[in-house]
Amino acid sequence: MDMINSGDTAWVLMSSALVMLMTPGLAFFYGGMVRRKNVLSVLMQCFIVLCVLSLQWVLWGYSLAFAPGSPFIGGLQWLGLNGVGLEPYADYSATIPHQAFMIFQMMFAVITPALILGAFAERMKFSSFLVFIVLWATFVYDPVCHWVWAVGGWLRNMGALDFAGGTVVHINAGIAALATAMIIGRRRGYEDKPVSLHNLPFTVLGAALLWFGWFGFNAGSALGAGALATNAFVVTHVAAAAAGLSWAFVEWKMSGKPTMFGTVTGAVAGLVAITPASGYVNVMGAIAIGLLVSVFCFFAVGVIKPKFGYDDSLDAFGVHCIGGIWGALATGLFATKTVNAAGGDGWFFGNPKQFMTQLITVVITIAYSFVVTFALYKLVDVFMGVRVNDTEEAIGLDLTQHHEAAYTVLE
Amino acid sequence: MKLIIAIIQPHRLEDVKKELYKIDVNLITVMPVLGHGQQKGVTEFYRGIRETGNLLRKVQVEIAVNDNFVDPTIKAIIKGAKTGSIGDGKIFVTDLARCIRIRTEEEGPKAIG
After folding, report:
1. Which of A99, A337, A362, B76 is the most exposed place for a label (fewest CB within 10 A)?
2. Alpha-carbon torsion A284, A287, A290, A293, what sign?
3. How far does the CA of residue B44 sit from the closest CA of chain A (Å)?
4. Do the Cβ atoms of B46 and A404 come within 8 Å?
């Protein structure tokens, strides 16, 4: 009989609450970046994801992701949380109630699809968004989560290291963002001029909430309150700090002035990159990961995006996918068993094979997520139409999709 | 010299600007305003309560031009702003008594462009 540890349980429940706050945090992070006529639509999309995918998770998502099944998908025995009780389930976490593990994982299943909406902000029909996001959670997130984290998942069995979701969350959502941005097309008027951010302080507030919540995301993934959680907590913070600073310096050098927007973008990129590595690397590894991620992401959003001309409106691909790929590969470089004996050694600690495993995992996730996202989008497009019409887009999604306005002109 | 005041749909502003640039009218002043004409305002919902008769958001564009630019400017505004639906707005043209450029203190038609 496994014993419930009160410290571990308290930390995982608290971490679940921290990760929950990241979705509204993301809403503000993204909401500040759109024009004032679309801010409510972004907040609404994030918030409704929190509502609808929480239900999806308890009804069937958790079972597909974590129930014992084939190497590719979980079984159906945990539908509606049938059999997911208050006793520990030792295969995942021997010291906390099974439902604590379930609710912690739920918050990841919620925020991951929400990340994608940065790619098609300001132009997707709300009804189609709802359908698309439930399909995506079911056919992309749940299987990939199963492969990497569930007992018996084939990428897990291959030895891939992903502590808190670099592959499952960030690469997965980031590549889906690229796919949707490419198919939905650019925003109206995007060719003529860059679309202006309507409220940068919102974006800073959102980034701060994300950083705060990320302690739950990464340190909570230790699933216990101990040494490993502490390591994850420390390296998460250090990587975010290094990346924020690094982006400011890169910008200073490349475009003359360091910006607030760039600095918070860098910090978020650092948090993304440290996510898969946080349970396996030490502080020096974290600094390297953080300093470099901003260079890669800056290049992705500042050079590659304009060159190819896709409108990944809020840089979900440029920050989450690129940052996630670097994080997953960096885990294969900087991981060390001195941090986590259950983890592995990376290339710099004498084990180049780990790097190759990470690389294969990245490629597989990208391929699967891109193709299935593309198919799901097309499916929704055929039946409902995904994009709003030109006039609706010009008037803004707040009024046309929700009959609300965020700001008054007088009073 | 005339002062052209156009009240248009906010979402047509970009098109109006585009049309004005085409005929070389680059000096414009734009402000957000509220108002309504025949259509009596927009409908919004707050917690299920329908609110009609709210003033509509419009954009007011002001352009001071020399006489030979008046008709092209009006045409450009119409081309950019017209959708054919109620609410497209109005254009007012008034005489402009004086125009002074602050930097050089020039006055009259040459101070406009």
Report:
1. A337
2. negative
3. 5
4. yes
Q: What is the pTM of this model?
A: 0.90
Q: What is the pLDDT of residue A172?
A: 96
Q: Does A405 touch chain B (CB under 8 A)?
A: yes
Chain B residue closest to A403 (CA)? Answer: B44
Distance from CA of B21 to the nearest CA of A (A): 13
Contact A38, A47 (CB under 8 A): no
pLDDT value at residue A190: 77
Rg (CA), chain A: 20
3-state helix, strand, coil in chain B (%, to 5): 25, 40, 35
The answer to whether A395 faces chain B, any CB pair under 8 Å, is yes
Domains parsed from chain A with CATH numbers:
6-402 (1.10.3430.10)
CATH of the domain at B75: 3.30.70.120
Say yes or no to pLDDT of B41 above 70: no
Looking up tokens 């409220």, which residue turns up?
A199
pLDDT range class, residue B49, cuts 50, 70, 90: low
ipTM value, please give it: 0.72
Indicate the residue of A192, A403, A410 with minimum beta-carbon distance to B45: A403
The domain total for chain B is 1
Instruction: For residue B66, give its domain range.
Output: 2-111
Q: Quick check: A285 and A336 in contact, CB under 8 A?
A: yes
Which residues of chain A lie closer than 8 angstroms to B14, CB-CB? 189, 192
